[in-house]
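thoughts on my protein:
***
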Amino acid sequence: DDPDIGILKNPRLVSETNKTLMSTINSHTDKGEMIVTIGGDHSLAIGTLSGTLNAFPEACVIWVDAHADINTPESTETGNLHGCPVSFLLSTLHAGKDIEPFKWIKPCLQPDRLVYIGLRDIDMGERKILQENNIRCFTMHDIDRHGIGKVIEMALESVNKDLKRPIHLSFDVDALDPSVAPSTGTPVRGGLTFREGHYICEAIYETGCLVALDLMEVNPTLMTTEADVIQTLSVGQSLVRSAMGESLI
């Protein structure tokens, strides 16, 4: 039994899962191993980013997503914690500090070390948070205007100018257009193409700074056809391979 806290759904389950995930990640970072986490909803980033930033306090985060996932317990309209992970980690918000299950979370992420790519569905409360914290965001409009190559250059310039910081890449497959990755929980039309998504992974690999990768929101139970599931799983697998260095030639 995991009753709501306010309107937050499954708070104890989310907290304990992420606490365990953080510990598991740190057991691998202690050995100098690369971390790849396959999810699952994006609330898991509470654990993955906590683990990465424990091991690499100077790391930056590149968050690829249709959504900002930066609602606070006060601003969320749904209570779904997969829309809140960044607010729990951001040093200027520390959104879970007064909620018992989440008091263990350290506000370890600085706003100037976070950049978003692919945004196109942002709540009003999130927009206010992004503006007040001066967090760099590249929406689909920016990608249409500049091209994905230039956007990656600008994103890296904003959080990792000299490529001296480790990178945690947190990639939600709903950043991709639903025609590319249909089996996901909150699809939003007008997203990244297959190649744009893979270019992001290839370019981050080429920096030599990648220490952790999340691939989130791949959900085979959400389908209209079996072909949708196979397509989404295949795309997810190829994104991971690209981030690990697989190239066309």
Observations:
- The chain has a mean pLDDT of 98.
- The longest strand covers residues 210-216.
